[in-house]
# Entry
Amino acid sequence: MMNLDIGDILNDWPYRPGEINVRRIIGKDGREKLQMRLDMGLLQMETVGRPDGRTPHGRKSLLDYYRELADNYARHHGSCLEFQLNEKDCEALRNEAVLYYHRYLAEFVLADFPAVVRDTKHNLAIINFCNDFAEDDRDRLTLRQHVPYILMMNIRARARRAIQASCPKRAAAVIEKGISIIEDFYRSTEQEEIIDLSAELKILKDLYNEIRVATPVSQEIRLEEKLRVALEEERYEEAAILRDKLRSLMHSKHRHK
# Structure
């Protein structure tokens, strides 16, 4: 009879309370897996595709399947505006989001920041999809409350990836823009009072300050970065003001040489 007891595995890998205990292993199939130690067991996840290795309805993810249903609906009806997700559909998508949540936590601890970006994008896409097509408002709100946290993890991963690439200025710009995005989310959902209390914003602001202290940035570089962001976001009036300030600063520098 096959021995299914995993006690030896758990004994060899003690659980550490207060930490996210994760590791990489090579499975029997020769592929890399992620494992997360829990207080009474462990999770094992695939590193690509769905974390549980399943292919629902033959698709890479349940989100891909429902997107295909929406696209087919639009082809037959000329629009997907009437396409709807019922309560069970939304619950299934939420369950998929939980799988990706566990994996991006493990990936962050292991400093696999591109994978964190990939998986947080997946969960943000699930939230947007449910927001667009859920029949019941409760199904929209259930996931929407997690947006600031998922955004924060995405922004941290992108910033850390920039730091790994020795681009601290880029990291600071990513965080600065990310803070604005989360603040705008709170305002758009009539939660402006949360901005000063948000744990997600505090984490990002602390990381921003950590980067700026470690990497002093000149006034000229700060203006150039703000100008770049303003142009990307098509805030042309602000860009014009920043461009004038930059020209004035550079002229002043040349004059004092």
Q: What stands out?
A: Residues 87-109 form the longest helix (23 residues). Residues 222-257 form one domain. The radius of gyration is 23 Å.
